[in-house]
Design the sequence.
């Protein structure tokens, strides 16, 4: 039996599981983008002041920060809220004025009015998943169509040996 490419040694269902795994990143990215679009379309734009940074510990080695913003809502009430996204570094300092988005019904959820602050996480997850799906499909195609490799099972080896013996036996028969 001849198998073309080592890719045949990897069952199709494993390829599909890997693709589905990265497909979840695409799906997550799409959900995050839809949430960001809904948030930004329903949000009120205003200015706020960075009053501090809240630490979020990722693990023993990493810390991220969320700016805490104080802003005045249209009805005059003052709110303090953490931004929706944390980062290991920001270009803002305490006391800086920033453009923010907030929803009237959830004033404790604010986002800095910057394209990547609102849409960046969804785009990152979606593009990350899509990139890896493309790479996996490309790699699968390359592996499946790689240089032909001959793999034989025991029965075919025995059949080939028997045929060779018969061929030699015919060649060595005495001529009468």
Sequence:
């Amino acid at each position: 039996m001849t198998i073309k490419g080592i890719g045949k040694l990897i069952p199709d269902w494993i390829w599909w599981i890997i693709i589905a795994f990265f497909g979840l990143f695409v799906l997550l990215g799409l959900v995050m983008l839809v949430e960001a679009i809904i948030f930004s379309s329903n949000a009120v734009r205003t200015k706020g002041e960075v009053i501090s940074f809240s630490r979020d510990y990722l693990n023993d080695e990493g810390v991220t920060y969320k700016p805490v913003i104080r802003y005045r809502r249209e009805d005059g009430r003052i709110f303090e809220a953490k931004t929706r996204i944390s980062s290991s570094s920001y270009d803002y300092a305490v006391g800086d004025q920033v453009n923010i988005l907030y929803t009237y019904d959830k004033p404790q959820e604010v986002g800095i009015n910057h394209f990547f602050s609102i849409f960046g996480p969804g785009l990152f997850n979606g593009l990350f998943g899509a990139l890896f799906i493309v790479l996996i499909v490309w790699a699968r195609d390359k592996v499946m169509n790689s240089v032909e490799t001959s793999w034989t099972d025991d029965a075919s080896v025995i059949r080939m040996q028997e045929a060779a013996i018969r061929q030699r036996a015919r060649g060595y028969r005495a001529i009468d």
About this structure: Residues 53 and 67 are 4 Å apart (CA to CA).
